[in-house]
Design brief:
This protein has about 325 residues and is an alpha/beta fold. It has 14 helices and twelve strands.
């Protein structure tokens, strides 16, 4: 039995006790003419089987007493079963842990949402953790839930195609979303829902084929990945260009210890904006290399010259060691 079912049983038990107390108090008050407090006291001691040292004065009160004794026995037996099951199932600790997770998710900003935590989703999570990027997982399949608990990730247990679960994951505060389900239909529904709710969100989706890729792009995905096609390209490159592939693996894997790729957006308040690569002495002062620039108009400068001007809105693609990348990020940090 899941946590929600156990909580419903506890709520039903509490409601039954409250209803019995109310009914018993009213019954004794009407049949014996006692005050409300005395009637409530008589109901309590009768229901808990402790009894009173006086016998009710009329048959109506005797009948109420008998009924309360029977109900009390039933409630005590049911309560014992619920308590044992609650302790065994860890409902209290589970509810507290779930509440802590919800509070943590509520505090997230600029995080990512992974919809689907199968093989692809789990690999995405590994990369996010290696990059120290906050993220939330949405899934309800048993194997995916087991993986999420094993990885100790922030989890929304539910269907990602439901708007409510996307809201619970903080869609309005998220930086990006990955639709990584094995189902093209589910990914399409997630993309449609996410794009309508958050027009500026970065969305990457998984597709099984070109037809699904086209539909996902129409639905609003920024990029669509075909795992089988990508795997074929990688395998071909491993044969044709093994060293190039090894280099790309080194710089694109977050856990890589030697080299990393980074993209840095130049904001209006960045002191380095409007200056050239030569003037900023990027290679000399940081050790990192700017290998490409995406200009504000969408075009790419794949091999920027030293005299290339870095403008507001440009996105720099840099490569270097983790220390060098941090120095490059500091150089283009927004002025406080």
């Amino acid at each position: 039995m899941d946590t929600h079912a156990r909580l419903r049983r506890v709520a039903a038990l509490v409601a039954a006790i409250a209803a019995t107390l109310v009914a018993g108090t009213i019954g004794f008050h009407e049949s014996l003419g006692e005050g409300w407090l005395q009637s409530f006291y008589r109901t309590i001691v009768t229901l808990t089987l402790t009894g009173l040292d006086t016998v009710p004065r009329n048959d109506g009160a005797l009948v109420i007493t008998i009924v309360l004794v029977v109900v009390g026995l039933t409630i005590i037996g049911y309560a014992g079963a619920v308590i044992v099951e609650t302790i065994a199932g860890g409902v209290l600790s589970g509810a507290l842990a779930e509440r802590r997770r919800e509070r943590t998710i509520d505090q997230l900003r600029d995080h990512f949402i992974i919809c689907g935590y199968g093989r692809v989703g789990r690999r995405i999570g590994q990369e996010f953790r290696a990059s120290d990027v906050p993220y939330v997982v949405i899934d309800f399949h048993e194997d995916a839930l087991a993986s999420a608990h094993e990885d100790e990730v922030l989890l929304i247990e539910g269907d990602a195609t439901k708007d409510e679960n996307l809201r619970r994951a903080g869609l309005d505060r998220a930086r990006g979303l990955v639709a990584a389900s094995d189902s093209d239909a589910d990914n399409l529904y997630v993309v449609l829902s996410a794009r309508s709710a958050a027009p500026g969100l970065t969305i990457v989706a998984r597709a099984s084929g070109e037809d699904a890729e086209r539909k996902l792009m129409l639905a609003g995905a920024d990029r669509v990945v075909l795992p089988y096609t990508a795997a074929g390209v990688v395998m071909a490159n491993l044969v044709l260009r093994p060293q190039v592939t090894a280099f790309l693996d080194a710089v694109t894997t977050a856990a890589g210890p030697e080299l990393q790729l980074a993209e840095i957006e130049v904001h209006r308040t960045c002191p380095a904006a409007g200056r050239t690569i030569r003037e900023l002495r990027i290679r000399h002062d940081t050790g990192a290399i700017v290998i490409a620039m995406k200009k504000a108009d969408g075009g790419f400068d794949a091999t920027p010259e030293p005299d290339a001007t870095i403008d507001v809105g440009d996105i720099l693609i840099g490569v270097g060691s983790p220390t060098e990348i941090r120095a490059l990020e500091d150089l283009f940090a927004v002025a406080g």
